[in-house]
């Protein structure tokens, strides 16, 4: 017996009398506030209480007049004003002449009489006291709305008509009374402005759904008129909500359609429960199809109307069986909607389909199906496809261009020849296909109807101009023919309830699509299908001796471990040698040309680039130029180590006699000496060690006579704050240092030169991490095998399944805690600095090196250094040639001392200038005392010079003490916390080595134990998974960590200032020791 279909037809005919736009919305958004509209008259109930004359003038100023007609409809309107609000104004001023039921009540001739209306009860009262304050009823004619625009007022603060929402709430158990209250509510919404409010709409849907849920299937089948009434009310509230006046400023919730559609679904289930026939419900918004299936019958079932073109085809029962989860009847519901209930920018046209499965209690969710669900969506309003006819010969090609604006679109291209031939088509982006441009080709024959489906993957999800050329195949003998070319684009989307957006993932366009119908293949996937982590296997430690005794039969893992340990020892010896060389280059260089008396210190970081032959053998000179002066030209060299090698970061301590202010320029040059003088300088950082301020100079150029711009001398400007904090600068800096420091494997070759994390420690950490990876990996390896696990990689008889891949991923994730524990300890250890033995500071100056010319030369240097600052107002002097010139020089220094003594405001400049001058004068005095009067022409001259110098020393010391008291120098940094964050003491390295050796030993033990338990065959398979896990760690996880940290620093954090280390303190002590030997004084 053939199955038959019962069709129940529901139509909405004439229920809603409102046109496309309800009358209360006329003039929406204009100037007048209307509470009610009746027969083209706007009634405005003015709450502002005023005397009658003021109420009249106020109404006329808005283009209206006080109410003058009290007909029966107007009386009913006033009677229906909400009485639940006890504070409502109940008296309203009326006009001068009021017509009541066609009877004109003239105002008394006296100006002292006025008329008002009361609502409780409804009465017209004439009074002589027009000065009382009352509300008023102002009317406006809507026929001249272009001149007097109307605006709907909010009903939250206005009198409202009597509502029936509460009547619906009390009638949920009585469906007849509920529907009557719903009809009354819909009538009030239709005839009143500002309706429905959000609260009334939500309560209407809630009560109607609750009332429908009280019905039974037998009642629904016997009372189809009631079910039709429910559908009418649901559709009515939906349409009124879509056309409400304030839809632009108060949009409906995105789930409004789903809440209305839930009522439709419930009605369909109630009616369809009693039979297994197909139920068809024709709605105002579309058509709902429902049929009841047993789980087995759902396979390959067709639901919908194949005649109309909107239907779905379910996959096989084997693809559905695992996820249906029920044995009882299943309700399949398909809704074909003519309008999109969720408008968006996705340009969705044609029919929208909703497909749901339910067991009557809860919905059934399908995902990750092995077969696709086929959905056919008609596009009746799609534009006609334009046909292009071209002539094609063996020597010509037909070129067609397409502008793809959506990366999710699928293109259908058809080229129908006039005769049966074979065509070759080629697809390319940006330019016509050619032998020089990459393209995708295909062959079109009569078997595929000369039709080509170009998927988004073939289009590389790229928007822009694409080209397809069509030509005859080489095997075609036909010479001339006509070609009819057509094309169209389409895509499939689904509504994601969680994100409330249209999505394309899990849906593809099928090859049965036409210009009038879209064929969709949907398979909605989810990322949360099963448990992710697997418990490790159990191993019996008490069986250690028995398991290790099987080493002769299973030596695979043991041999692998021995090879790893051998490679580790070789690499460790190289790392120790490289670390020894790095320590020799690590020191901070004290610039030899620093004046011994200069104690204002700058730390200079010079970074040489990583380009080929970037290092230099030339002598590099640097000059700092600041807002308050410039330093001398200093040669940056170190007799104990090579400097400016490729990729190196060299640090120098440069001292000046006084602060240079804001360092704005840096002058660098070299003498082009040595075998490889060309130098590529990457970046220079100058840090003021007193104020902690740093200036960055982004050089990125060659200082070379034959490379770049062929210049060996250049001046660089300090980078601005926005340049230093730019994303590009920080990202490049963090990425470069990240791979050399954060990437534990790559950093072995070339770690940061000043990192406390040595190569030997890095190699040992890599070995420990390798052993940990092996232990964790092998502990998870012997899990129950899944025979259905897909193979993702295969070479000959060796293959890797999805299960093996997941074990590798889990092991990579579990390595992070161990990684952080070991590496952080070594990276956070403060470098141990061994103080150099101090030279004997009591060594006396050799008499042979002290003479008058040497004293004159030193005096010239002191005056030249002090005069280099404009603030000192001291000009340079000519060369001192004899002892008589020494008087003039000392006199100039005496004038400078008086200048400093007269400065009332002290700052760091005067402190360090007086300190430098004091050190220089002490040195001169010490030298003079080593001489005798025979070095001078007259004994009196020697004594006079000695007395003047001694006087200048005492005066300068007083000036220095005065300025130092008013402006003390920064606090010594020997006890200052380092800016690099938390640091561990140097002896904590032993803790790190203990943990590293312990973890390595335990990991090696368990790796061998598991391998002996698994046997030889499984051990070989495990080695493959180990290789995959190592590949993920080295080439995926570590680079992603480096890039992630770089992005976070570039987007969220500011660049970190140059760190201060204990090595800086050591080199500062060296400069201070030079000053003590120079001045002959212990303290200044």
TrEMBL record:
Classification via InterPro entries: C-type_lectin-like/link_sf, CTDL_fold, GAIN_B, GAIN_dom_sf, GPS, PLAT/LH2_dom, PLAT/LH2_dom_sf, PLAT_polycystin1
Family affiliation: Belongs to the polycystin family.
PANTHER family xrefs: POLYCYSTIC KIDNEY DISEASE PROTEIN 1-LIKE 2, POLYCYSTIN FAMILY MEMBER
Residue ranges of every copy of the PLAT domain listed in the record: 600-717
Subcellular localization(s) per the UniProt record: Membrane
Domain GAIN-B: residue ranges: 381-541
Identification of the protein by name: Polycystic kidney disease protein 1-like 2
Organism: Betta splendens (Siamese fighting fish)
A GO-annotated cellular component: membrane
A single BP term in Gene Ontology: detection of mechanical stimulus
Assigned keywords, A-Z: Disulfide bond, Membrane, Signal, Transmembrane, Transmembrane helix
Endpoints of the signal sequence: 1-24
Pfam family of the protein (one): GPS
Protein's UniProt keywords contain Transmembrane: yes
Alphabetized Gene3D superfamilies for the sequence: 2.60.220.50, Mannose-Binding Protein A, subunit A (3.10.100.10), PLAT/LH2 domain (2.60.60.20)
Transmembrane segments: 555-577, 763-785, 805-826, 982-1010, 1030-1053
């Amino acid at each position: 017996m053939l199955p038959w279909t019962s069709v129940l037809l529901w139509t909405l005919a004439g229920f809603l009398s409102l046109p496309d736009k309800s009358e209360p919305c006329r003039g929406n958004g204009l100037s007048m506030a209307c509470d009610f509209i009746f027969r083209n008259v706007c009634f405005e109930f003015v709450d502002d209480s005023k005397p009658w004359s003021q109420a009249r003038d106020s109404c006329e100023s808005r283009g209206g007049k006080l109410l003058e007609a009290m007909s029966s409809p107007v009386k009913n309107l006033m009677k229906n004003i909400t009485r639940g609000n006890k504070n409502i104004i109940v008296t309203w001023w009326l006009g001068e002449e009021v017509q009541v039921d066609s009877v004109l009540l003239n105002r008394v001739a006296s100006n002292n009489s006025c008329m008002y209306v009361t609502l409780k009860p409804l009465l017209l009262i004439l009074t002589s006291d027009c000065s009382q304050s009352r509300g008023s009823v102002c009317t406006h004619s809507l026929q001249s709305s272009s001149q007097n625009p109307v605006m709907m007022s909010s009903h939250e603060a206005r009198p409202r008509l009597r509502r029936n929402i509460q009547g619906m709430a009390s009638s949920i158990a009585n469906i007849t009374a509920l529907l009557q209250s719903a009809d009354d509510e819909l009538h009030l919404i239709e005839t009143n402005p500002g309706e429905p409010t959000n609260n009334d709409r939500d309560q209407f849907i809630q009560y109607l759904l609750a009332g429908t849920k009280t019905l039974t299937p037998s009642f629904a089948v016997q009372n189809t008129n009631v079910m039709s009434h429910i559908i009418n009310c649901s559709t009515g509230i939906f349409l009124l909500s879509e056309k409400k006046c304030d839809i632009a400023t108060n949009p409906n919730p995105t789930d409004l359609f789903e809440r209305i559609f839930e009522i439709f679904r419930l009605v369909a289930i109630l009616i369809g429960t009693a039979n297994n026939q197909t139920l068809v419900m024709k709605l105002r918004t579309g058509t709902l199809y429902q049929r009841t299936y047993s789980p087995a019958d759902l396979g390959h079932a067709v639901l919908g109307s194949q005649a109309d073109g909107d239907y779905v085809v379910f996959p096989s029962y084997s693809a559905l069986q695992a996820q249906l989860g029920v044995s009882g009847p299943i309700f399949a519901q398909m809704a074909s909607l003519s309008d999109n209930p969720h408008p968006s920018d996705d340009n969705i046209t044609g029919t929208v389909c909703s497909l749901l499965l339910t067991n009557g209690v809860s919905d059934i969710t399908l995902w990750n199906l092995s077969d696709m669900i086929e959905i056919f969506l008609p596009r009746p309003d799609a534009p006609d496809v334009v046909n292009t006819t071209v002539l094609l010969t063996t020597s010509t090609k037909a070129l067609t261009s397409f502008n793809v604006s959506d990366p999710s679109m699928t293109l259908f291209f058809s080229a129908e020849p006039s005769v049966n031939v074979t065509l070759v088509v080629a697809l390319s982006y940006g330019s016509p296909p050619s032998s020089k441009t990459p393209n995708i080709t295909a062959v079109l024959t009569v078997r595929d109807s000369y039709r080509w489906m170009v998927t988004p993957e073939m289009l590389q999800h790229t928007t822009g101009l694409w080209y397809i050329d069509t030509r005859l195949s080489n095997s075609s003998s036909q010479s001339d023919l006509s070609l009819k070319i057509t094309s169209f684009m389409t895509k499939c989307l689904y509504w994601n309830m969680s994100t409330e957006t249209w999505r394309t993932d899990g849906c593809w366009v099928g090859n049965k699509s036409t210009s009038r119908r879209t064929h969709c293949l949907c398979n909605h996937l989810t990322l949360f299908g099963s448990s992710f982590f697997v418990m490790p296997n159990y191993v019996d430690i008490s069986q250690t001796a028995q398991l290790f005794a099987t080493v002769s039969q299973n030596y695979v893992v043991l041999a692998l471990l021995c090879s790893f340990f051998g490679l580790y020892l070789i690499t460790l010896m190289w790392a120790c040698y490289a670390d020894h060389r790095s320590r020799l280059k690590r020191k901070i260089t004290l610039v030899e040309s620093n004046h011994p008396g200069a104690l204002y210190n700058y730390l200079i970081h010079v970074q040489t680039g990583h380009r080929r032959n970037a290092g230099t053998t030339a002598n590099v000179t640097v000059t700092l130029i600041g807002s308050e002066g410039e330093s001398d030209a200093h040669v940056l060299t170190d007799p104990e180590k090579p400097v400016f090698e490729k990729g190196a970061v060299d640090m120098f301590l440069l001292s000046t006699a006084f602060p240079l202010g804001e360092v704005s320029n840096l002058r660098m040059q070299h003498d082009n000496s040595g075998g490889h003088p060309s130098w590529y300088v990457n970046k220079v950082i100058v840090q003021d060690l007193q104020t902690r301020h740093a200036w960055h100079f982004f050089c990125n150029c060659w200082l070379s006579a034959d490379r770049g711009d062929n210049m060996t001398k250049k001046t660089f400007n300090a980078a601005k704050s926005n340049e230093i904090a730019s994303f590009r600068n920080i990202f490049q800096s963090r990425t470069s240092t990240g791979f050399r420091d954060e990437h534990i494997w790559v950093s072995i070759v070339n770690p940061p030169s000043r990192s406390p994390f040595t190569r030997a420690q890095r190699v040992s950490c890599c070995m420990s991490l390798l052993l940990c990876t092996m232990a964790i990996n092998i502990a998870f390896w012997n899990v129950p095998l899944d025979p259905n696990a897909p193979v993702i990689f295969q070479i000959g008889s060796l293959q890797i399944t999805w299960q093996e891949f997941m074990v590798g991923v889990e092991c990579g994730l579990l390595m992070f805690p161990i990684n952080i524990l070991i590496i952080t300890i070594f990276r956070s250890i403060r470098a141990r600095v061994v103080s150099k033995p101090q030279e004997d500071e009591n060594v006396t100056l050799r008499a042979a090196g002290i003479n008058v010319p040497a004293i004159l030369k030193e005096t010239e240097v002191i005056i030249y250094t002090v005069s280099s600052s404009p603030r000192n107002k001291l000009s340079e002097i000519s060369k001192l040639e004899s002892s008589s010139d020494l008087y003039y020089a000392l006199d100039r220094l005496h004038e400078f001392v008086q200048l400093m003594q007269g400065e009332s405001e002290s700052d760091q400049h005067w402190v360090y200038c007086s300190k430098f001058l004091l050190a220089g004068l002490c040195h001169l005095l010490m030298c003079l005392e080593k001489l005798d009067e025979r070095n001078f022409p007259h004994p009196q001259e020697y004594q006079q010079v000695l007395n003047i110098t001694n006087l200048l020393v005492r005066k300068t010391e007083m000036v220095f003490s005065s300025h130092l008291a008013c402006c003390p120098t920064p606090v010594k940094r020997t006890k200052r916390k380092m800016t690099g964050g938390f640091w561990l003491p140097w002896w904590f390295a032993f803790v790190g080595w203990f943990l590293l050796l312990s973890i390595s030993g335990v990991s090696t033990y368990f790796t061998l134990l598991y391998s002996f338990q698994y046997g030889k065959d499984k051990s070989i398979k495990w080695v493959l998974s180990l290789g995959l896990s190592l590949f993920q760690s080295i080439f995926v996880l570590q680079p992603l960590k480096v890039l992630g940290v770089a992005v976070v620093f570039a987007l969220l954090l500011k660049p970190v200032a140059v760190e201060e280390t204990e090595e800086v303190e050591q080199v500062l002590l060296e400069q201070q020791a030079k000053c003590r030997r120079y001045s002959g004084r212990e303290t200044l």
